[in-house]
Design goal:
This protein is an alpha+beta fold and 116 residues long. Helices cover 24% and strands 34% of the residues. The protein contains two helices and five strands; from the N terminus they run ββββαβα. A five-stranded mixed β-sheet has the order 1-2-3-4-5. The protein is globular and about 55 Å long.
Length: 116
């Protein structure tokens, strides 16, 4: 399903999951076709927080790649609110995977009992 907030971006961005205050994307840069993940947390303006994970060695990420990613991130966050700053962390890896971990009901009850 296309999303209006992804129109006009440089890279290929795909929305993986979304909550009221965050969005998780996977994508590929137009510049060199490098894979990435971007987790955006929409805190109160003026600061949006982003965790970027790139697949590959850090030396592959030239100024052109950085410019493309941050130009796209700027468009995404400005379409959400009047942000002035993107506070970010970056990691480089050989692979990205997703999953779910289910918390057992007995663990939830035990936690609630301990912290009641």
């Amino acid at each position: 399903m296309p999303h209006y907030h992804l129109e006009g971006l440089n890279g290929d961005w795909r929305l993986v999951r979304e909550t009221e205050t965050s969005q998780l994307y996977r994508g590929t840069t137009n510049h060199h076709g490098l894979s990435f993940s971007a987790s955006i947390h929409f805190t109160a303006a003026p600061i949006a927080t982003v965790e970027l994970i790139f697949v590959g060695e850090s030396n592959q990420f030239t100024d052109g790649v950085w410019h493309e990613i941050f130009e796209d991130l700027t468009k995404i966050v400005l379409r959400r609110n009047n942000y002035s700053i993107i506070d970010y962390s970056v990691a480089f890896t050989s692979e990205i995977s997703d999953g779910n971990y289910s918390i057992l009901d007995e663990d939830k009850r035990a936690y609630k009992t301990l912290h009641a």
